[in-house]
Every structure is written in structure tokens, then in C-alpha cells.
Amino acid sequence: MSSTEDPNLPSKMEKTGFKTIETVGRLVLFIIVRFWRFCSAAMLTLLLLYWLYGGVVIFLLLTAAVLGALYHYQDSFLYFPEQPLSSRVFVQNARVLGLPYENLYIRTQDGIRINALFIKQPPQLQAQAPTVLFFHGNAGNIGHRLLNAKALHAHCYCNVMLVEYRGYGKSEGSPSEYGFTLDAQAAMEHLLNRPDVDASQIIIFGRSLGGAVAIDLASQPLFVNRAFALIVENTFTNIPSMASELLSGLHRLPYFCFRNKFDSIAKINSTRAPTLFLSGLADQLIPPRMMKLLYQTSGSTLKRLVTFDGGSHNDTWQCLGYLEAICSFISEVQQAHITGVITSPVVNEVTPPNTPLHKAGMTQDI
């Protein structure tokens, strides 16, 4: 009995059925992406339709719209580049404080131009002094950190480079976790390639959200052996944990639901630079226990945790003994290098890699 099966059937299915499935899949994906982008309008429309007609399909679409809104609006709960209100139009000049400085614009790997302020020691000291690469919190601009930078400049005899993230102050672009990674990388590369900076004494510093940026930079394979030291102040373990602290129950959400993760607790074990943890015990925004957990998890062989009883989230740097703790740690690291206890940072020039690395009222930095 002869077979009636068409020998060309597999190729026909490949050309018709499978192709149709692929086309429909692409169309559905396109619609989902569009739907999520315009989820606010969709949510209002679907809410009205559900109220008038009900129905399982409309309910599921409404649920997807709500989730899409929550996902895409997370940035507005984390980044505050316009608080205070003038932060995007006015950045305080370092000249007001009598500081010698350079105003810089640095091009990132993805073509964004970010603003930075390089506050330098006198010419006879600049090339031998440590340089602090300063990453600030989630609100304001670098001008709001000038008094802090002046204190580091005057008491610790450091050059200080303040970095303004994309979407902040005079910098181009919009804030994002991936973008901040590229901003930090571009700033570090700038310092490593400056002839008037000692590339073996670059200190990566981050406060609050900036602490997560600093930890990320110090843990990247390209820079893990290039930092003289890492200093983090009043920072968190990761965004999902912080979200749970601020709103009980969010820890039950799957990890992928968080648009921004800043997973410092997963990265800190990969850091190798000597690390100083500065923790204000009166911090009512970020629990001090997060700083302690980061300290315990750190992969550095030389690490210190210094606490300040009266230090709140934003003003720990004004506490008695704060600057002394930083100066003492810098001296300890320098001595450790001299005695060979720890290896010195790699100082050869670095070039950019070919592919990218992987509310109303007063707002507190996080």
C-alpha cells in the first residue's frame, strides 16, 4: 500500500505554519512592548471597560497594565535629579568656596556627555596626592556636595573628582542603573589616563545610592585591581531589600519585577580594594545593619567598619571623627602597600573596552 503522505510536507509547514507562528509571535511581542510603554493610558481605559463590562480578559489586561506601570515608574521613586527644584539649571561653582578646580565634560561609552568637577591640590602636591572619585546620592547635583569635597580636600589632602550622573545637573541623558555603570567607568578611565594624577592612588567613594555605584565600579573585572581604596557611606545591600524596608511585603515580588537592582551585596564579595565602611547609626532611611552586612560580605583583605552614633543618613560626614577616620584609613592603606601586606594597584593606562559593561518636599539620598 503506497503512502499518501506528501514528501514536501515538512518544508511546507516550515514555510507556512512555523513562519506564521514566528510572525504572530513578533506581533504579539511588539504589542506587549507598546502596551507597557503606554500603560498609563491603557490602565485608565481598561479600568473603565472593566467597571462597565467586567470580563476575565479585560481583568488580565488591566493587571498587566498595572504591573507595567509599576515597573516603568520605578525610576521616579529612585532618581530625584530635580530636587531641589533648581538642580537641573543651577550647579554651584567651586570658585565660591575658593577651591582650585577644572570643570569637565566626559563622553561615556554610549555617547552621553556627563559633567564632572575636578578639585585639585596645589601643583606641587597634585600629582602625588590621592584622588577621591566621588559618587553622590540620588538627589541634587555635584554642587550640593562642594562643602563635603572641600573638607576632604583640606583635611585629607586629596584631589576630589565629583561626578554628575546622566540626567543630573549639567549632564546629558536620563538616569538608569546601566547608565550609571557607564558614567562611573568613563570617570575612572579619565582619571587613570590623566598625567597629573597618581593612578596608583585613586579612591572610589560613594554615599547612599553612590555607594552602590562605587561598589559596582570596584567589582568590575576591568577595575578590580586598579583602585587604591573603596569608601562607602550609608549605602544599602540592594534595591529589593530597600523596597521591602520602605513598604512591607515587596520582598515577596520576584527579583525580575525590580527595574533597578543595584545589587551591592552580590558584588561586594568580588571587590579587592581596601574598603572603609562609614555608617551613621542614626540613619532612619537605610538600616545600619545593611552596612554591617556589606562589611561582613566584602571580599577585601583589608577592611574597616567605622560607626557614628549621631550620624543620620545625610549628615554623617559632619560627625566628629569622620574626616579623621578617612585620613587614618588612607594612611593605613599607604603603609600596607609600603610593607607589602597588600599589592599595589595596576597603573598602566586603560582604554575603553570594545563592548559595554555588563516627592514633594525634601528628598533624602538613597
**Proportion of residues in extended strands:** 5-15%
**Order of adjacent strands in the largest pleated sheet:** 1-2-4-3-5-6-7-8
Count the E strands.
Answer: 8
Q: What is the CA-atom radius of gyration, in angstroms?
A: 25 Å
Which blocks of ≥5 consecutive residues have pLDDT under 50? Answer: 1-16, 353-363
Number of helices: 13
Structural class: alpha/beta
Helix content: 25-40%
Mean pLDDT: 84
* Terminal residue distance: 77 Å
List the secondary-structure elements in sequence, H or E.
HHHHHEEHEHEHEHEHHEHEH
Shape: globular
Main sheet characteristics: 8 strands, mixed
Describe this protein's structure:
- With about 375 residues, the protein is an alpha/beta fold.
- Helices cover about 40% and strands about 15% of the residues.
- It is built from 13 helices and eight strands.
- The protein has an eight-stranded mixed beta sheet, with helices on both faces.
- α12 (about 290-295) links the parallel β7 (about 275-280) and β8 (about 305-310).
- α1 packs parallel to α2 (about 15-35) and α8 packs across α9.
- It is globular, with a radius of gyration of 25 Å.
- Mean pLDDT is about 85; it is low at about 1-15 and about 355-365.
- One of its GO terms (cellular component) is membrane.
